[in-house]
């Protein structure tokens, strides 16, 4: 994907995050919550109360999650998508992201987070409005937001740590 030109109000930044070699997208999804409401006719399960979903080394947490599933015959349900809302966090061994909302498309192996997104790796921090992570390739795209009415455009911002300079000075012998 090509980044927009420098005069476009909406900025995009791409980088590798949530490394695919460390994440098994076919691992089972373990869910933990205070409450579950199953709407079997709609094929939706609503989890609420400090919801935590773990898949391998990846953890997704939120206040509430709607799990959309399919069920063929008497077989086990197959999860298609998880919609997370409220205090959404995505955590891996190398990266952390937070936002107001998130969608894990299990079939496409993507996570999309929206609303005051912050992505962090060590001391590096990126901010934007929409983060899309491809869990297969490890590529993430962070977007700002175009202007709306009287609200100005929101640009992608970041702070990157700079490693200390290695000194080439050797102690002089006397």
From TrEMBL:
Residue intervals of the Organic solvent tolerance-like N-terminal domain: 31-138
One of the protein's GO biological processes: lipopolysaccharide transport
Organism domain of life: Bacteria
Stored InterPro entries: LPS_export_LptA, LptA, OstA-like_N
Keywords attached to this entry: Periplasm, Signal, Transport
UniProt GO molecular function: glycolipid transfer activity; lipopolysaccharide binding
Region (Disordered): 138-174
Protein name as catalogued: Lipopolysaccharide transport periplasmic protein LptA
Organism annotation: Hankyongella ginsenosidimutans
């Amino acid at each position: 994907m090509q980044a927009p030109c420098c005069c476009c109000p909406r900025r995009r930044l791409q980088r590798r995050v949530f490394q695919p070699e460390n994440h098994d997208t076919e691992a089972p999804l373990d869910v933990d919550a205070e409450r579950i409401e199953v709407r079997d006719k709609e094929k939706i399960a609503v989890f609420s109360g400090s919801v935590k979903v773990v898949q391998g080394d990846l953890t997704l947490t939120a206040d509430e999650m709607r799990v959309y599933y399919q069920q063929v015959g008497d077989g086990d349900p197959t999860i298609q998508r998880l919609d997370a809302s409220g205090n959404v966090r995505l955590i891996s061994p190398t990266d952390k992201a937070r936002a107001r909302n998130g969608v894990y498309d299990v079939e496409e192996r993507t996570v999309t987070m929206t609303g005051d997104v912050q992505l962090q790796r060590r001391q590096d921090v990126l901010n934007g409005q929409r983060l899309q992570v491809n869990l297969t390739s490890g590529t993430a795209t962070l977007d700002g937001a175009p202007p709306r009415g009287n609200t100005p455009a929101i640009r992608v911002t970041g702070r990157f740590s700079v490693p200390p300079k290695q000194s080439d000075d050797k102690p002089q012998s006397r």
